[in-house]
Amino acid sequence: LEDLWTKLGKAYYNNQQLAAAEKTYQKAFERIPSFQQALALAEILAETGKVSERVQTYSAASMEALLEQD
After folding, report:
1. Distance (Å, rounded) from C-alpha 19 to C-alpha 36?
2. Which pLDDT belongs to residue 14?
3. Angle at the Cα of 15 (from 42 to 5), degrees rounded to 5?
4. pLDDT tens sequence across 12-58
């Protein structure tokens, strides 16, 4: 399921549909929190100039990475 969310987000991103990509990655991260989903979302937020949300998402990605190691 995570792979499908990722593919959909990438498809939106590749078609310059950044708002749709952001929503897709946000939903994916909420449903299946993972380091990769958080990083993908953070990259979209960076491109759309949402600095505060980007920092929060990078922080969440760091937490997920630590949790995934255990």
Report:
1. 19
2. 95
3. 55
4. 999 999 999 999 999 988 888 888 888 889 999 999 999 999 999 88
| Predicted local confidence at residue 70, as pLDDT | 61
Distance separating alpha carbons of residues 30 and 10, to the nearest angstrom: 17
Q: In sequence order, which ranges of the chain are alpha helices (DSSP H)?
A: 2-14, 18-31, 35-47, 51-69
Residues 6 or more apart whose CB falls under 8 angstroms from that of 36 comprise: 2, 6
Q: Are 6 and 29 within 8 A, CB to CB? A: no
How far is Cα 47 from Cα 38, in angstroms, rounded to an integer? 14
